[in-house]
Specification:
The structure is a homodimer of 407-residue chains.
Chain A (H helix, E strand, L loop, with lengths): L3 E3 L4 E4 L7 H4 L6 E4 L4 H4 L2 H8 L5 E4 L8 H13 L4 E6 L1 H13 L9 H4 L11 E5 L11 E6 L5 E3 L9 E3 L5 E6 L7 E4 L9 H19 L7 H23 L4 H14 L13 H13 L3 H15 L5 H12 L6 H18 L16 H10 L13 H10 L2
Parallel strand pairs in A: 2-11, 3-4, 3-5, 5-6, 6-11
Antiparallel strand pairs in A: 7-10, 8-9
Helix pairs in contact in A: 4-5, 7-8, 7-9, 7-11, 8-9, 10-11, 10-14, 11-13, 11-15, 12-13, 14-15
């Protein structure tokens, strides 16, 4: 086991009815900004429930935080925060709203000239942030109990020549954001997060499935590297994977199955709250490539992961051999046959699991072709991501092979 | 899964050499009291290492905190804290030193007349406590990452008539403390704890074994109850049990096996930091009976647990049936035979595991006879412990049967 520091100060309030406790968690004198996305928290009454729990308090609202929340939108909230002397932020939604609110919290206290720098330096120059809490509606990213956030910028869209020769010379603007970057800082750990599984009952199946895949891949990126004899971390990771495999299909089949929704929600939180990643190597190659694919091609975040992960496992099967065999045995009960066939079968099982949730695992299924690869590699290079992987051996060339294997 | 709140703010610094970081974790202006037990932290250089990390800082020392730390000893430290205006406590040792330091931290800020009341009300009237940190040398109790403490009081020893009729009328004073009680309060979470596995290399085998049993029983008391479909908590608990079973014998055979010592240390911390106990029923019957046995008979804490737990499982086998079968299958790989025989085998395996560590599982092995039972039951009643168990069905009579089955 490698040396580590672990410190997660977020208070979790888990279970049905816990939104009512929000009022006690926010200092009495606070001027509170509730942040959210689009219509679902309004439509299904979550916003009303939150406001009822804060009745009589100075409340402000900021809506319109997008999936892949953008700098441009969030900076409007930062202005509102300053104008109204907001001193507590309450995110109501999924990972995008919580991530976006973390950026608002940090940017509102930012001393530099352009808060986008927070993303460019990964959070290194953040000093402080407004306190924030969260009410989670979509189990997926773990943002409700960690100090990271992923933010996109749409201002400078990428310009590509039209593929069709007939339009030669006519440039096209893609629909996607150019940049999707992350930052991390202890100041943006939510002070508390409410995890009420019933609030995930109304999620569309695609979002439910995406959340399961996102959590699964978070676990894999902290687990499927090389062994360092960290038995607790390995077994915790395996426990999360098995729970996703068992209860993922269940929540899709029975959206109002409380026990299964609760297990999925707690699993997604535990998948990326730092605990299973303590003292072990990490491999964030899948996420790094996935972020660029989302930024350039507009694919759902989780769908990029479902495409990239199996290709990463396949391309890195030699350097990940020992953990792939452990994964094959403990997760997929694969004990017979030679090592190579067990590894092949485990990767196939992973792909089948994602597909069984309705999440395609090939770029082709999303209409993305080989031409998309070069821009992704260029962006990875521009963002200083190489080399990737737990052994720092996923170079630009290796990444090209992974992306080609994802087609 | 039941509703829950989870909030654990302790920062963990894990690994070899981490004591050097202690200075950065304690506010610069603090007047620091280092608390410890007997000779081992002096003899093996841990104390010197801590003092070197705090060189030039205002340091005070309080030694002599016993196993089963006593109110009488700790109140001397409280006086020292007040006299020297101490404002940070640093516990260096195992669970007894850390527990004792939590009491010092709370008692030093106590507004009432007698800090023993903190134990009598379980911490309910604690308002605040001095900040504290810990340097752990003995993985066992989990005190380094929780907000509980167990304190004994020796002042009023129990008076029993001599067993031998020849001495009729001559009262005898037992050697043990009369009371062993616990309190819990969020104010006594350590601000940080250093977990350096190399500091456990020099533990005597009996203390190493006791620590493994203590952690094992902590897990069981949060796991072996009745199912509430809490898959993450179950699998995390099972991961801890399997790690103790695998690496427990290893650290006894190879005291300087870093990987195994690290796994045992992290397991013991995770066994009682609140995480595996979220949202599930608990059964602390074993600990409650064990505390009285230690107080009255002077048995090591872990040895009381090794004796009581198998008897609790046996006596409660009907109400714990489903989890006993899950435990049999997932921990001991018992899949064949009828339910009753699998449960019997799982309990036998538990007993064998403790015995394999050199920890006897019968009261007789410690020279404790049936006469010891009535005083234990009387103390449990006096302390208001009945009914015990996750279903509140372990009455005084049921406890008598458990203790008789422990002989």
């Amino acid at each position: 086991m490698d040396n580590f520091a672990f410190h997660n100060p977020t208070k979790i309030l888990f279970g049905t009815g816990q939104i009512a406790a929000v009022g006690q968690e926010i200092p009495q004198e606070s001027r509170i900004l509730i942040t959210y996305g689009g219509g679902s928290v309004v439509k299904f009454g979550v916003l009303d429930e939150v406001k009822a729990a804060l009745a009589g308090r100075p409340l402000f609202e900021f809506s319109g935080i997008e999936p892949n929340p953008t700098y441009e939108t969030l900076m409007q909230a930062v202005e509102l925060v300053k104008r109204e002397s907001i001193d507590f932020l309450l995110a109501v939604g999924g990972g995008s709203v919580i991530d976006g609110t973390k950026f608002i919290a940090a940017a509102a206290c930012w001393g530099g000239s352009d808060p986008w720098d927070i993303l460019l330096d990964g959070g290194a120059t953040v000093k402080t942030a407004l306190p924030m809490g969260a009410v989670l509606t979509l189990p997926a990213t773990g943002s409700e109990m960690n100090c990271g956030a992923v933010i996109s910028r749409k201002e400078t869209r990428i310009t590509l020549p039209a593929a069709n020769g007939a339009n030669a010379g006519v440039s096209m603007i893609t629909k996607s954001q150019q940049d999707k970057l992350y930052f991390m800082h202890p100041a943006v750990y939510p002070r508390f997060s409410v995890l009420d599984p019933t609030k995930s009952y109304t999620l569309p199946p695609q979002q439910t499935a995406n959340g399961i895949v996102d959590a699964f891949v978070h676990v894999m990126e902290q687990y499927l590297t090389y062994p360092v004899d960290a038995k607790v971390q390995d077994r915790f990771a395996e426990g999360l994977l098995l729970t996703l495999i068992e209860d993922g299909p269940k929540v899709l089949a029975e959206p109002e199955n409380y026990a299964a929704r609760a297990n999925i929600m707690w699993t997604a939180t535990m998948a990326l709250n730092g605990l299973i990643g303590t003292g072990v190597p990490h491999d964030w190659a899948t996420h790094m490539m996935g972020h660029e694919l989302t930024a350039l091609q507009g694919l759902d975040h989780a769908r990029t992961l479902a495409v990239i992960l199996p290709a990463v496992l396949e391309q890195q099967r030699d350097s990940k051999r020992e953990k792939l065999l452990q994964y094959a045995a403990r997760i997929w009960d694969l004990h017979s046959g030679d090592e190579a066939s067990r590894i092949t079968a485990a990767i196939a099982k992973t792909r089948e699991f994602f597909e069984s949730l309705g999440v395609a695992t090939r770029l082709a299924a999303y209409g993305v072709t080989a031409e998309a690869i070069a821009p992704v590699l260029a962006k990875l290079e521009q963002h200083g991501r190489f080399p990737l992987g737990e052994r720092q051996d996923v170079t630009l060339d290796a990444s090209r092979r992974i992306l080609e294997a994802s087609l």
